[in-house]
Design brief:
The structure holds two protein chains of two kinds. By secondary structure, chain A is of the alpha+beta class. Among the domains of chain A are: 55 residues, no CATH class; 101 residues, PAS domain (Beta-Lactamase, 2-Layer Sandwich), CATH 3.30.450.20; 159 residues, 2-Layer Sandwich (Heat Shock Protein 90), CATH 3.30.565.10. Chain A is 49% helix and 20% strand. A six-stranded antiparallel sheet of chain A has the order 8-7-6-11-10-9. In chain A, strands 2-1-5-4-3 form a five-stranded antiparallel sheet. By secondary structure, chain B is of the alpha/beta class. Chain B has a single domain, classed as Response regulator (Rossmann fold). In chain B, 40% of the residues lie in helices and 17% in strands. Chain B has a five-stranded parallel sheet with strand order 2-1-3-4-5, with helices on both faces. In chain B, helix 2 packs parallel to helix 3. The N terminus of chain B is likely disordered. At the A-B interface, helix 12 and helix 13 of A face helix 1 of B.
């Protein structure tokens, strides 16, 4: 009954005073009602506002917020949880939490913990920060930081978990550590082989890959060659390893070939889906499914490719690819430095070997020279010391002996001088100081003179046939240097010709642009792989102990020919002999020198 | 092993440089030691197979066809063990490599050759 009804039912209800009072009461009543209604409205509004704010906080949270009821079923699953675990909220609500996000091996422990709390009110994990593994919709396990709050209002308790994905944080730290490990390994490495092995092992072990290959660009073959393969001991992929080791990967083909072409890192989530990966069926068969690779670059030049495979399929990892791009540049710089260092060491090694050969070669004429002088000195010392002086005291025979000694010593001094000239030529060429004095030279005439000199000292069985005529092949060249070229080629033909006859042709090409000197022997020949090298410094087609000389002859010859604007080439077959062809421009070509 | 018996003071000189070879021959023969020359290791082996023991082998190291090191290996492989007893003295300008090899043989005279040292060495082995 309302106040109005109470008042109405009393005996004063009809008196004017009563009527006035009743009106007043009515007004108060309405006011009270309005006030109460407003209070209710405000209360409801405030509640809604709080609710909306709570929801907004939950929605906006970067951490996952997941609430479950006392039966372990999910009743709240915020957007961060959706993103982290890969389930839509609609699907997650109502699911058993253990089944959805806890790794199977921990299901039982989770359920027991919940039952224990419901029975005893004790929960050792409540109100603490924990690190636990969790599992995503795609099956990937990862580490989360977790705190659980229990809310006990009316009815059974509910549990709210706040979870943070630690994997990205860990990953960043891990990748920084990997970068550091690689940099340390590179600074310790003495050779490319040493470095590549360490690089593969560090990346694979730190970033959880199972097999890695280091490919090097072979520019001549236009292909990639695997120089190092690393795999975990529990990986059994013999066929993939064999094919990777044996087969070269052409530009644009397979994972490494396409990285070489693009110059960018590449990712294969599942090898089975990638038709461009030529080794896919073997890798698949041998249990490798995920892969990625990145280029080793120096500037824009790709020096090599590093690729990795894993047994698991791997979802695309943008951050990893960004990191390895930087890493590829750093490894590239290291390789550049290493190659420069190796070249330098090779040059120093060659120079050391050359110095030892040069010293040996200089000592050979010196040995005869010195022995002859010691013998002469000894014979003088032991000769009868008669009045009028030692030499005069000798008979005709010792005088002949002296003449002979002087001749031998003269020859040896000449040999020494020739060797020193070669050494000086080497220095001149290296410093770019090879000077040419141009005069008109008749190539045939000079050739004939050189051959005449050689023929005098040759055994009768060996013959030099020369074809050509004077007055036909004439050019503006340095006559001393041209003589040097001819001398070198003919002395080589004698030295390596094994006593067979030697053919020399002096001709002009039909267009009268070049004069050609062709020297052919029928000796041991030069293997194909040595045919380019013999024109380089300190190279010869046979081992150092086999042939005397500095090994500079063809190098110097080539330098002189090229300084004249000409060229030199060789055609040779092992066991059949060699033909050297020098082409010299017939037009005056002083600018080249 | 068969062949003519050489005088016991014969010296086998293995040397590829003709000038050095003829100088050594002139010197040693002048001192009364017959010289058998060989231009490389193979020639030396052939000579050893034909003649009986020289009192000394003077051996150069850098030579064509068969160098001094290959010659020594061949010598050591001689199953009859007759050749292994022949004293070998290295005459070489090969520096450290010659010094290392000299440990395996009787001696080492570096080039350019010191005449007095050579004569003392020859007297030591050939009387």
């Amino acid at each position: 009954m309302s106040l109005y009804q109470i008042a109405k039912s009393t005996k004063f209800a009809t008196s004017p005073d009563v009527i006035g009072l009743q009106s007043l009461l009515n007004a108060v009543l309405v006011a009270l009602l309005l006030f109460g209604y407003r209070l209710v409205l405000r209360e409801r509004f405030t509640c809604r506002k709080i609710e909306a704010r709570k929801t907004a906080i939950i929605e906006a949270s970067l951490d996952c917020i997941i609430t479950m009821d006392h039966q372990g079923r999910i009743i709240e699953f915020n957007p961060a949880a959706e993103k982290t675990f890969g389930y839509p909220r609609k699907y997650a609500i109502g699911q058993e939490m253990a089944q959805l996000i806890v790794p199977p091996r921990l299901h039982e422990a989770h359920r027991q913990g919940l039952a224990h709390f419901l029975n005893t009110g004790n929960g050792p994990v409540l109100g603490k920060k924990l690190e636990m593994p969790a599992i995503k919709a795609d099956g990937t396990e990862f580490l989360v930081e977790l705190s659980i709050a229990v809310l006990q209002l009316e009815g059974p308790p509910v549990f709210t978990g706040f979870l943070r994905d630690l994997s990205s944080e860990r990953m960043t730290k891990q990748r920084l550590a990997t970068q550091f490990h690689i940099m340390s390994a590179l600074s310790d490495a003495n050779s490319l082989k040493d470095a590549t092995k360490k690089i593969l092992q560090i990346i694979a072990e730190d970033l959880n890959w199972d097999m890695g290959t280091f490919w090097i660009v072979e520019n001549q073959a236009k292909a990639l060659k695997a120089i190092e393969i690393w795999h975990r001991t529990n990986i059994n992929a013999p066929e993939l390893i064999r094919i990777t080791r044996e087969e070269k990967m052409p530009f644009g083909k397979g994972l490494p070939g396409s990285i070489w072409k693009s110059g960018e890192p590449a990712w294969i989530s599942n090898i089975a889906d990638d038709i461009n990966f030529t080794r896919c069926s073997i890798a698949n068969k041998e249990g490798l499914h995920g892969g990625f690779g990145f280029p080793i670059k120096s500037g824009n030049r790709v020096l090599g490719i590093v690729e990795f495979f894993s047994r698991k399929t791997r979802s695309f990892d943008h951050d990893l690819l960004q990191d390895v791009t930087t890493l590829g540049g750093q490894i590239g710089q290291f390789i550049d430095r290493l190659v420069a260092l190796e070249n330098l060491q090779k040059t120093i090694g060659e120079r050391d070997e050359f110095l030892s050969i040069a010293s040996h070669e200089l000592k050979t004429p010196l040995t005869t020279l010195s022995l002859q002088l010691q013998m002469l000195e000894r014979s003088l010392r032991t000769a009868p010391n008669q009045a009028g002086g030692i030499v005069e005291a000798h008979t005709k025979a010792p005088r002949d002996k002296i003449k002979k000694t002087v001749k031998i010593c003269g020859n040896q001094a000449k040999k020494l001088s020739e060797l020193l000239d070669e050494l000086l030529d080497l220095t001149r060429i290296r410093l770019g100081r090879l000077r040419l004095d141009y005069t008109e030279v008749d190539l045939f005439q000079v050739t004939q003179e050189v051959i005449d000199r050689f023929s005098a000292g040759m055994n009768l069985n060996q013959k030099i046939d020369v074809r050509g005529a004077t007055g036909i092949v004439k050019g503006h060249w340095d006559s001393t240097r041209i003589e040097q070229i001819i001398t070198n080629l003919i002395s080589n033909a004698i030295k390596y010709g094994e006593g067979g006859h030697i053919e020399v042709d002096v001709i002009a090409d039909p267009a009268m642009q070049y004069g050609r000197l062709i020297v052919k022997d029928h000796g041991m020949g030069i293997p194909v792989e040595m045919q380019v090298k013999i024109f380089e410094r300190f190279e010869r087609a046979v081992g150092p102990s086999h042939i005397t000389g500095l090994g500079l002859g063809l190098y110097i010859t080539r330098q002189i020919v090229e300084a004249h604007g000409g060229s030199i080439s060789v055609h040779s077959e092992v066991g059949k002999g060699s033909t050297f062809t020098v082409a010299l421009p017939l037009e005056k070509n002083e600018a080249v020198a | 092993m068969s062949g003519t018996l050489e005088q016991c003071n014969t010296i086998l000189v293995v040397e590829d440089d003709e000038e050095i070879l003829s100088t050594l021959r002139e010197l040693l023969e002048g001192e009364g030691y017959p010289v058998v020359p060989a231009k490389n290791g193979r020639e030396a082996i052939e000579i050893l197979e034909k003649m009986l023991h020289p009192c000394l082998i003077l051996l150069d190291l850098f030579m064509p066809i068969m160098d001094g090191w290959q010659f020594l290996d061949q010598l050591n492989r001689d199953e009859s063990k007759l050749l292994t007893h022949i004293p070998v003295v290295i005459t070489s300008a090969a520096g450290d490599r010659a010094r290392e090899t000299a440990i395996r043989v009787s001696g080492y005279i570096k080039k350019p050759i010191d005449l007095e040292l050579l004569l003392i060495t020859v007297q030591k082995y050939c009387g």
